[in-house]
Automatic annotation (TrEMBL):
Keyword Electron transport: no
UniProt signal peptide: none
Protein name: Tryptophan-rich sensory protein
Membrane association type: Multi-pass membrane protein
TM stretches of this protein: 54-75, 87-105, 111-131, 143-162
Any one Gene Ontology cellular component term annotated for this protein: membrane
C-alpha cells in the first residue's frame, strides 16, 4: 500500500468516520422501527437453530464494524468508476439492511422480509465481488456478513413458516 501523504491522512480519517457513520445510521434506522425487537423475537415460535436474542447485538456490532472498514478500504483504492460502482452497491445493501427490521418486526411482514433479505443477499454477493476486485481484504471482510445473512435468511423463513 502506498504511504499516505500528510494531507491525505485527514481525508482518509474523515472517510473512515463517514463509513462508520453510514453503518451506524443503517443500524439506527432499522432499530427505530421497533424498540422491542428482542421481546418480539422471544414471543415468536422459533426453530431449534434459533439463537437467543442476546446474540444479535454483539454479532451485528462486529459485522457493522467489518462492513465500515471494508467500505473504507475500497474508498482508499482511489476514485474510479469501479470504486463508485462498488460503493454504490454497498450503499444499496445498507438500505436493504436497514429495511429488514421494520418489515420483520415493525410491520410483522415476515414473508416480505424473507424476500427482501433474498434481494439483500444478491446485492451483497455482487458487492463482495466488486469489493474483492478493489481490495481482497475488503471483500473478505464482508464474508462473515454474508454468512450471517444467509443464516438470517434461513431463520427468517423458518420463523415465517412457524408463525403463519
Amino acid at each position: 500500500m502506498v504511504a499516505e501523504t500528510s494531507r491525505a491522512r485527514p481525508r482518509s480519517l474523515v472517510a473512515l468516520a463517514v463509513s462508520v457513520l453510514a453503518v451506524v445510521a443503517a443500524s439506527a434506522l432499522g432499530g427505530l422501527a421497533t424498540t422491542s425487537a428482542a421481546e418480539d423475537y422471544g414471543r415468536l415460535e422459533q426453530p431449534g437453530f434459533a439463537p437467543p436474542s442476546w446474540v444479535f447485538g454483539p454479532t451485528w456490532t462486529l459485522l457493522y464494524l467489518l462492513m465500515a472498514v471494508a467500505a473504507w478500504l475500497v474508498w482508499r483504492t482511489g476514485p474510479s468508476p469501479d470504486t463508485r460502482r462498488a460503493l454504490t452497491l454497498y450503499a444499496v445493501q445498507l438500505v436493504l439492511n436497514a429495511a429488514w427490521t421494520p418489515l420483520f418486526f415493525g410491520l410483522g411482514w415476515r414473508g416480505i422480509a424473507f424476500f427482501e433479505l433474498g434481494a439483500l443477499l444478491l446485492v451483497l454477493i455482487a458487492t463482495i465481488v466488486l469489493f474483492w476486485r478493489r481490495s481482497a481484504v475488503a471483500g473478505a471482510m464482508l464474508l462473515p456478513y454474508l454468512a450471517w445473512s444467509v443464516f438470517a435468511w434461513c431463520l427468517n423463513f423458518a420463523v415465517w413458516q412457524l408463525n403463519n
